[in-house]
Amino acid sequence: MRGYFGVGAEGLSKRMNLGSLMRSAHAFGASFFFTVDAGPAIRRAPRSDTSNSPDHLPVFAWDTVETMNLPSRCQLVGVELTDDAIDLPSFMHPLRAAYVLGPERGSLSSSMLARCDHIIRIPTKFCINVATAGAIVLYDRHRALGRYADRPVTAGGPKQERASHAHGGPIFRTGRQVPGWEKAEAGTVPGETED
């Protein structure tokens, strides 16, 4: 998959949820993990993070929304049940994104919501566990941006595999292609003639 993404939570209070969310982030290939306004005990990876994700991806602990320092051009996506939120199945994920979830018994703060580029919601009747919500969002990103065969109209798996990506030749800054790249793809060197 192209691009990158990070996952985080604001105001978490349960270490087991943090660990499960970190493990899901690591499993789905997150580039970083973060917390905002978390207590000192929450900032460490708990035992529920059985993949030891801090050994494999950076973990940032920001004290406030104002001190968050996301990468350049990274879009912040809030996951919250609000009236104007986009339903997850209808949302196109940004190529560069950071997903933030709220606390277990509350919502994302008004300052966090104001900072978000997008607000999405999982179309459920009521709030679900924060770690479960994170895993669902990450699965949806993986499904939307990964290269998978289209789902068939009838039940079951795809009838045919998705075609492999066809790479084009190198392009000069002027916009024209490098001559002879097709022959190089076929095993001959550009500029040489075939006998």
Automatic annotation (TrEMBL):
- What does the UniProt keyword field contain? Methyltransferase, S-adenosyl-L-methionine, Transferase
Q: Quote the cellular component terms of the Gene Ontology held in the record.
A: cytosol
Gene Ontology annotations of biological process type = tRNA nucleoside ribose methylation
Q: Which GO terms describe its molecular function?
A: RNA binding; RNA methyltransferase activity
Q: Which SUPFAM superfamilies match?
A: alpha/beta knot (SSF75217)
Keyword Transferase among UniProt keywords: yes
Which family is it part of?
Answer: Belongs to the class IV-like SAM-binding methyltransferase superfamily. RNA methyltransferase TrmH family.
Please give the name of this protein.
Answer: RNA methyltransferase
Say which species the protein is native to.
Pannonibacter tanglangensis
